[in-house]
Structure formats: structure tokens, C-alpha cells
Amino acid sequence: MNIFARFAQDESGATAIEYGLIAALISVGIIAAASLLGTNLGNLFNGIANTLNVTVPDGSGT
Fold first, then answer.
1. How many CB atoms lie within 10 A of CB 18?
2. What local confidence, expressed as pLDDT, does residue 60 receive?
3. Residue 41, class by beta-carbon neighbours within 10 Å (0-12 exposed, 13-18 middle, 19+ buried)?
4. Transmembrane segments in this chain: where (predicted)?
């Protein structure tokens, strides 16, 4: 019976699960931020490239 009482009072597993959940939440936030930043950065570079293509012709004469 003593072993069950110690098992019921042991909170180290719960602490590990809490740390795991916190790490997962932080990971989801980092992934969302990187995705959003990547999309915005891609749009910025595409806009710059389009502006340069209009400003500086490619020399093909078309």
C-alpha cells in the first residue's frame, strides 16, 4: 500500500508534462511567426524585383 501512496503523491511526471506543453506552445508560436515573416519577406522581395524589372529593362528589345 505504501508504494501506491508514494506514486499518488509523486508530481515529477506532472512537472515534465507541463514543461513539455510549454515547449510545444513556444514551438507553435515560433513556427507561426516564421511562417508569417517568410511570407511577408517573400512578398517584399517580389515587389522589389517587379520594381527593378520595370525600372531596368532586360535589354532584349521587347
1. 11
2. 63
3. exposed
4. 16-37
Domain ranges in the chain are: 22-47
pTM: 0.54
What secondary structure does DSSP assign to 16-39, as a single string? HHHHHHHHHHHHHHHHHHHHHHHH
Q: What is the mean pLDDT of each run of 10 residues along the chain (62 residues)?
A: 71 81 96 90 90 71 55
Rounded to the nearest 10°, the torsion over CA 22, 28, 29, 30 is 110
Cα 61 to Cα 8, 49, 56, 57, distances in angstroms: 81, 19, 12, 8
As a whole number of angstroms, the distance between CA 62 and CA 4 comes to 83
